[in-house]
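CORE FACILITY INTAKE
Project code: CF-77B
Contact: R.S. (postdoc)
Sample description: multi-component assembly, three entities in total
Requested service: structural model of the whole complex
Turnaround: standard
Below are the sequence entries exactly as provided by the requester. Do not edit them.
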Amino acid sequence: MKRFAARMGPIGIVAVVIVAIVVFGAVLAPLIAPYDPTIGSVTQRYLGPSLEHLLGTDQAGRDIFSRLLWGARSSLVGPLIVVSITAVVGTALALTSVWWGGFVDSAISRVLDLLFAFPNLLLAVLAISVFGASLTTAAIALSIAYIPYTARVIRSTALRERNLPYIRSPQLQGISGLVITARHLLPNVAPLIVTGATINFGFAMIELAALSFLGLGVQPPDADWGLMVSSGQQSLISGYPAESILAGLCIVITVASLGYIGERLGGRSAAGRKA
Amino acid sequence: MMLDIRSLSLSIAVDGGPKEILHDVTLAVGRGEAVGLVGESGSGKSMTLRSVLRTEPRNATVTGAIALDGVDVLSLKGEPLRQLRAHQIAMIAQNPHAVLNPVLPISRYLVEGMHDAQGLSVAAARLRAGELLEQVGIDGVDRVLASYPHQLSGGMLQRVVIAGAIAGKPSLILADEPTTALDVTTQAEVMAILDDCRRELGMALLFVTHDLDLAAAVCDRINVMKDGVVVETGVPDQLRDHPAHPYTQQLMDSRPASIMWSPSDGSGE
Amino acid sequence: MSDTNTGPVSETAMITVNGLSKTFRTGVGRATVAALDDVSLVVEAGSCLAVVGESGSGKTTLARIIVGLESADSGTVAVSGRVVAHRASRRELRRRASEIQMVFQDPQSSLNRRLPVQTAVDEVLRVHTSLGRDARRLRCSELFALVGLSDEHLRALPEELSGGQRQRVAIARALAADPSVIILDESVAALDVTVQGQILALLDELRTAKGLTYLFITHDLSVVQLIADQVVVMRRGKIVERGATADVLGRPRHPYTQLLLACAPRPGWKPQRGVIRALREEITS
């Protein structure tokens, strides 16, 4: 625990606390949100902060604080899906590529190059136009766009490790490639995977929020930070900026915290280890 | 004495507190003299060299004194330090690839050095570069000048580095394991060249190595270091025949008593 | 400098190499490099043969082919009288590994830095023995003791051990398969000089105690002196001289061997450019 604290540094600890709060808020939303996030009374619209509505209400009379809490859920779940798929598939592709080498490596690399060519959001929009707008579609589409980044990074480190004697030695014993990859190669690229996942989480969060903002992700009346930024635009013009600004702040602070944590975690990745 | 190191102590700040790398190191190099720093890993020999060049790590705390020709090196910074490095000291490191820019031909390395540091015109510098390469025993000087680092062998590159080092006619050459990465035959040649050149030009040499016999071959005096401390100083013969410190004895014992042929035995069979 | 082929597989030899050749194609151009050129040698059971050469001599390629990391273009390798296949399948590798093991040069990269050092030895035991978990743990303990390490080292991570200790682990790992032959690829080159002597002494003890056969790849003639009975000298893929250590080092016949000896630092040695140049000329003529 202490080593973790030292690795994070003071700002890092603040970042961890922030993320922890967000996660708790999301998990406990059904218990602690004072109001239903989708139901509002028109008579209660645009109320300022008060004891009954901590952060006020939006143009449909819905409690903003509750919407932020509930919104945290989709804002976190989406990136979680993206990051999980990316990490698993990206790593699998990279390690397969490195272990088999030769033709397999070339083939996989070409596929990854193809994926690289697509701008992330474009791929997502494409998928959505085919499969319809929803958080899941957007998340999966984004995962596919992220895979080549992860795969590339893992591949280059794994490539270096693969020729070292601690991998050659079990190979000489006749141990199978799968076992060697899982037991020896994987743990030595694990720090990179973790760092990548943390940073990708932040990126995914922003891009999914953007998709929701464009109306292609989470659909109203569900609460979602990205969606709130978008639907809050009307209110902003009318002079009630609370919804957009607060939702936007949530996104920015969470992503920044995650990014910082990812950087600090990556300080002693396999790549950075002393030679 | 030209280089005078007195009670040099160096510690770096690590997680658990300050870690002492050098403790009370005192040694001297006379004008034109070759002095060896022999030790194993962790002995502090490389750090001592770095202190003279002032390339010690940022978080290092240094106490003691290093005087070069009477000038206090530890207090220098900025322009005077740059002058010191340009004119009075030259360094030969272990890995020539780290020193030579891989995208520039060898001529650039040598010419730039002389042009910037000594103000020679490019034409004059190029001429001198050719002379220097001959001095370090390179044939086909023009070809080498036009080559890129990756086209030349390690031994060749180290000779180029030596040429660059003596170009500025420094009073002191610092050599940090200059031949460790080379084949044994190349090592012998490069050491012979370094020895010849520096004797001819009257330069002093501070030679860091883990190989006691190698140091004995080219040095007038040797300091044996262990764990950041100089445990013994002496001329090579004395260290070999009458080592005063048990560690020196240990170093001697690790090498086998020589039953090997040497050229003065005449051709075998 | 006659260099006889060793002919058919010898009965008493532990390793017989016959006419081994291998060429590599260098990356950029299409130039081929002859890493090994018709190399033949014999290692008698229980002896230690040193293979000496500089970079490009082919000594490492030779070791890698014998142990199964590379395949030769032509020629044969026989271990304990049995010829081993060129392109080794996993099963073949496993079989070969139960007889020949290798200790690599770099103690740092020959162990998985994320796992306790015991797992390296345990892994080999799992492949080559049918011992259960507790029995393996006991055997690890015994092997560690054999190489001069203690039980508390079992759980250590590689970074917590010194270079010498890591090489001891590597030796324990090699012994775990109960091989007849151990190939040592510059196994002490990365160690401090004082530690080298200890490890070489350990290796020598083990050889006598267990009747092992060693093939020791090295560039360092002092190592040859300390541990090898026989030595072959390689240059550019060919063997240029072979014989008993005392003979080759004391009365070298080939100019390249003489050159190596002329360049080997030892008490009283000085590098002599003239001698080196003369010997080089003799070699190329």
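Facility notes:
- Residues 1-7 of chain C have pLDDT under 50 and may be disordered.
- Chain C touches chain B through 39 residues (CB under 8 Å).
Invoice: internal transfer
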